[in-house]
Inverse folding.
C-alpha cells in the first residue's frame, strides 16, 4: 500500500522541486517572498494578538476564556476548508499532468494522497500562521504548563486533516458532474472568480471592522450569552473538543477528548478514501477530451488580416481561453479597482466625494495618476507577454515573423486587456469625483499613457526573467522575479514623477504636459531596452 | 532547393553538428536518416531558423536563413517533430492564423482548408481547441497547415509519427506529387521502409557528421551491398 504512494510522492517532488533552488532568480524571489510574508504575518499576528489580549481580559472574570480557543479552531476550520476547496480542485483535476498518472496501476486514494503533498504544504503553512501564534499567546496569558504546549503541537498536525478531507470529498463529489473538457475550463474560471470575491469580501470586512477592541467586544458578548461556543459545537464539534483539550491539558478528560479528535480525524481520512475510490475517476477521466461537437463549417470563410492583427487576435484568444490567464489578467483586472475603492473609501462614496472636493489643481492630477498606475500596474498581463507562449515560442522562430511584429502585437494585446481595469476605474470615478468634461478627458489621456508605459515595463521584466519552460500556466504567476521587477520599476518610475509633481506644485496644465513628456520618454527608452534584450537573448529560451 | 554548406553547431563542449554540407535538390524527395541524437533535428532546426548556425551557411531557394531570414522562411513550410504548439487555439483558428501570416487569399484558403482537413479526417474537429487533439490529429493539423500554405520547399521532421495508415499513405502521395511538380521535399524519419519506398536521395548522419549522401543505388554501390537499407543503415551507424 505504501510503496506506490512513496513512489508517486517522490516523482511529484522531483517534477516540481528538482533544480528549482539552483536558479538564482528563484532564490531571490523566494527570499523577497519570505520577507513579505513575515511582514504580513507580523502585521496580521500583531492585530490578532491584540484582539486576544482584549478578549482574554473581558472573558477571564466569567471563566469563559476557552471561547477564544473555540473560535480559533472554528475560524481555522472555515479558512482551511475554503483554501482546500480551491487547492484540491486545481491539484486533483486541473493540472495538466494528471492524465499521465491515470493509466498507472494505482488506486485513486494512493494517487490522491501523493497529489495532496503540495496542497497540504500550503494548508499547514496557513495553520502555522493562524493557529500557532494565538494558541501559544493564550498559553502565556493563562500560564499554561508543558502538557498544554505538547497538545498544541499534536493538535497542529490534526487540525487541517478534517477540513482538508471534507473539502476533498465535496470537490470529488461535485466534479463527477462536470467531466467535460469545456466544463473543466468553466469550473476553473468560476472557482477563481469565487476566490476573488472572497478576497474582496474579506477586505470589506476588515475595513469595516478595524478596531480590535470592538471585534473582541462583539465576540466576548456573544460568548457571555453562550452563543459562540454553542455555534462552534453545533457546526463543528471538534472545535469545542479541541478547546477543551487545551484548557484542561494534563487531565484524563483531555486525553479522552484527544482520542475522540484522533478518531474523528481517522474518520475524515476514511471519508477521503471512500470519496477517492468512488467519485474521483468519474470526474477526472475525460477531462482533456474535445467538446464532442462536429464542426459545422462556421468561420471557414474569413477576410485575410494583417500579420499584427492576426497575431493580436491569437494573443487575445489564448488569454481568454486559458483559465489561468483569464483569471489573472482579465477577471483580476476588475479586482484591482474594486480593492482600490475598498481600501481608500470603504465604499463610502459620500465621504470620498467630500475628500476629493478638497483636492484641486496638481493634487487632483496626482490622485488621477496614482489611481491609474495602481489599477493597471498590478495586472500581470504584460509580465507574461513572452513567457505565456511556453513551448509554442518555437513556432515564432520558424514562421516568417519579425521581432517588431511580435513585440507590437503583444503590446497591443496587453494594452487592450489593461484597458479593462482603467475603464472600470473611470466608470466608478466619474460619479465619485464628479469630474467635468475637461477632467474626464485629462483622466482618459493619462490613463492611456500610463497603460502604455506599464505595459512596456511588464514586457521588459518578462524579458529580463523569462520563463518559457513551464508545465502549468500557474507557474508563471508564482515566485517569479519578473513580477517583483515590474512592480519595482513601475513604482520607482512613477514615484519619481509623483514626487516631482508634488514638490514643484505646478498648475494642472503644466503637470499634464510634464507627465506626458516624461511617460513618452520612458516608453521610448523602454522599447529600446526591449529591442536590446531580444537581440542579446538566446533565441530558443529567451534567457541570457 | 536547400543548401547546407560547412555547418557547425556546438552545445557547450558537445559537437551536435560538425562540418555538414548537404544539397537537397528540387524535384526530389530527400530523406534524412540517423539514430537518436545523431544531429538530425538540430540540422533541421538550423535550416528552419529555430537554432542559430555557429558557422557555415544555409540557404533555402537561394535565400540565406541567417542574413535574409524572413524571405528564407517564406520559402518553406515546416512540420515539427512534436506538434504541441498553440494548444489553446482551435484547429480552424490555427489554420487562419497561418494563412494570414503567409498572405493566403480568403477564397484560396477556404478551399484548401476544406480539401486537406477532409483528406486527413480532421475537418469535424476544426472547432475544437488543439489541446484536445490526439498526437496524430495534431500532426495532421500541422500537415494541413503546411498544405494550405503550399510553399515550394517542404521540411518535415518525423512526419509519419502518429499517423494512421490512410493518412500516412495520403501524405506519401502528396510528397511524391510535390516533388514531381519540381519542388523540394526534405524529411527526417526513423521508418526505413518509408524512406526506401519514397526517397530519391538520402543522407545519413551520425554523431553530428555526415556519413553519406546520394541515391539508394549509389549507397548500395558504395558499400558493395545488396542488403536492405535497414541493414546498411545499422552497419553504418553502429558504434564500433
Amino acid at each position: 500500500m505504501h510503496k506506490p504512494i512513496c513512489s508517486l510522492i517522490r516523482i511529484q517532488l522531483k517534477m516540481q522541486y528538482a533544480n528549482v533552488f539552483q536558479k538564482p532568480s528563484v532564490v531571490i524571489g523566494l527570499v523577497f517572498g519570505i520577507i513579505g510574508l513575515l511582514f504580513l504575518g507580523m502585521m496580521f499576528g500583531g492585530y490578532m494578538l491584540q484582539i486576544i489580549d482584549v478578549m482574554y481580559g473581558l472573558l477571564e472574570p466569567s471563566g469563559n476564556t476557552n471561547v477564544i480557543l473555540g473560535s480559533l479552531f472554528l475560524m481555522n476550520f472555515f479558512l482551511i476548508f475554503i483554501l482546500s476547496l480551491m487547492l484540491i480542485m486545481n491539484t486533483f483535476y486541473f493540472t495538466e499532468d494528471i492524465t499521465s498518472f491515470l493509466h498507472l496501476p494505482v488506486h485513486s486514494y494512493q494517487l490522491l494522497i501523493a497529489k495532496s503533498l503540495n496542497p497540504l504544504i500550503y494548508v499547514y503553512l496557513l495553520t502555522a500562521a493562524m493557529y500557532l501564534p494565538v494558541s501559544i499567546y493564550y498559553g502565556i496569558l493563562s500560564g499554561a504548563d508543558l502538557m498544554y504546549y505538547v497538545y498544541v503541537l499534536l493538535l497542529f498536525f490534526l487540525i487541517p486533516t478534517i477540513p482538508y478531507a471534507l473539502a476533498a470529498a465535496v470537490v470529488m463529489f461535485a466534479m463527477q458532474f462536470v467531466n467535460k473538457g469545456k466544463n473543466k475550463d468553466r469550473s476553473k474560471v468560476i472557482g477563481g472568480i469565487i476566490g476573488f470575491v472572497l478576497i474582496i469580501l474579506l477586505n470589506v470586512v476588515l475595513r469595516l471592522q478595524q478596531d480590535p477592541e470592538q471585534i473582541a467586544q462583539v465576540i466576548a458578548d456573544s460568548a457571555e450569552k453562550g452563543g459562540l461556543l454553542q455555534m462552534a459545537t453545533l457546526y463543528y464539534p471538534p472545535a469545542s473538543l479541541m478547546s477543551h483539550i487545551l484548557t484542561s491539558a494534563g487531565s484524563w478528560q483531555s486525553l479522552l477528548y484527544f482520542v475522540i479528535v484522533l478518531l474523528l480525524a481517522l474518520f475524515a481520512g476514511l471519508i477521503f478514501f471512500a470519496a477517492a475510490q468512488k467519485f474521483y475517476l468519474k470526474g477526472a477521466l475525460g477531462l482533456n477530451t474535445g467538446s464532442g461537437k462536429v464542426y459545422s463549417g462556421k468561420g471557414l470563410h474569413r477576410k485575410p488580416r494583417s500579420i499584427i492583427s492576426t497575431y493580436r487576435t491569437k494573443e487575445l484568444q489564448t488569454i481568454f481561453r486559458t483559465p489561468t490567464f483569464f483569471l489573472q489578467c482579465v477577471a483580476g483586472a476588475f479586482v484591482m479597482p474594486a480593492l482600490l475603492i475598498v481600501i481608500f473609501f470603504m465604499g463610502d462614496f459620500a465621504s470620498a466625494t467630500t475628500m476629493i472636493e478638497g483636492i484641486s489643481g496638481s493634487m487632483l492630477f496626482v490622485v488621477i495618476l496614482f489611481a491609474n498606475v495602481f489599477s493597471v500596474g498590478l495586472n500581470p498581463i504584460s509580465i507574461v507577454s513572452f513567457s505565456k507562449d511556453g513551448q509554442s515560442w518555437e513556432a515564432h522562430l520558424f514562421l516568417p515573423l519579425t521581432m517588431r511584429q511580435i513585440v507590437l502585437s503583444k503590446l497591443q494585446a496587453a494594452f487592450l486587456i489593461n484597458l479593462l481595469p482603467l475603464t472600470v476605474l473611470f466608470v466608478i470615478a466619474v460619479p465619485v469625483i464628479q469630474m467635468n468634461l475637461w477632467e474626464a478627458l485629462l483622466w482618459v489621456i493619462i490613463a492611456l499613457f500610463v497603460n502604455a508605459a506599464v505595459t512596456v515595463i511588464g514586457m521588459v521584466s518578462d524579458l529580463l526573467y523569462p520563463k518559457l519552460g513551464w508545465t502549468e500556466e500557474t507557474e508563471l504567476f508564482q515566485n517569479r522575479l519578473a513580477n517583483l521587477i515590474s512592480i519595482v520599476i513601475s513604482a520607482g518610475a512613477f514615484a519619481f514623477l509623483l514626487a516631482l509633481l508634488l514638490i514643484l506644485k505646478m498648475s494642472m496644465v503644466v503637470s499634464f504636459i510634464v507627465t506626458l513628456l516624461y511617460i513618452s520618454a520612458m516608453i521610448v527608452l523602454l522599447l529600446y531596452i526591449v529591442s536590446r534584450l531580444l537581440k542579446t537573448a538566446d533565441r530558443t529560451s529567451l534567457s541570457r | 532547393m536547400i543548401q547546407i554548406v560547412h555547418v557547425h553547431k556546438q552545445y557547450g563542449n558537445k559537437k551536435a553538428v560538425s562540418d555538414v554540407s548537404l544539397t537537397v535538390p528540387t524535384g526530389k524527395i530527400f530523406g534524412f536518416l540517423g539514430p537518436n541524437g545523431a544531429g538530425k533535428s538540430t540540422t533541421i532546426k538550423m535550416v528552419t531558423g529555430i537554432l542559430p548556425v555557429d558557422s557555415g551557411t544555409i540557404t533555402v531557394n537561394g535565400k540565406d536563413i541567417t542574413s535574409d531570414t524572413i524571405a528564407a522562411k517564406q520559402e518553406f513550410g515546416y512540420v515539427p517533430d512534436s506538434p504541441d504548439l498553440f494548444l489553446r487555439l482551435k484547429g480552424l483558428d490555427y489554420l487562419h492564423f497561418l494563412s494570414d501570416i503567409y498572405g493566403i487569399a480568403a477564397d484560396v484558403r477556404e478551399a484548401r482548408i476544406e480539401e486537406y482537413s477532409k483528406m486527413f479526417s480532421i475537418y469535424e474537429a476544426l472547432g475544437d481547441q488543439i489541446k484536445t487533439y490526439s498526437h496524430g490529429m495534431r500532426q495532421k493539423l500541422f500537415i494541413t497547415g503546411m498544405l494550405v500554405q503550399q510553399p515550394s520547399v517542404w521540411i518535415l521532421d518525423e512526419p509519419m509519427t502518429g499517423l494512421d495508415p490512410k493518412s500516412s499513405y495520403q501524405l506519401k502521395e502528396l510528397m511524391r506529387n510535390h516533388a514531381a511538380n519540381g519542388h523540394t521535399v526534405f524529411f527526417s524519419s526513423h521508418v526505413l521502409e518509408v524512406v526506401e519506398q519514397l526517397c530519391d536521395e538520402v543522407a545519413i548522419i551520425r554523431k553530428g557528421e555526415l556519413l553519406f549522401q546520394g541515391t539508394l543505388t549509389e549507397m548500395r554501390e558504395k558499400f558493395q551491398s545488396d542488403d536492405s537499407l535497414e541493414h546498411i543503415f545499422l552497419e553504418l551507424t553502429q558504434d564500433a
Notes: Residues 2-12+23-284 of chain A form one domain. The CA atoms of residues 356 and 433 of chain A lie 6 Å apart.
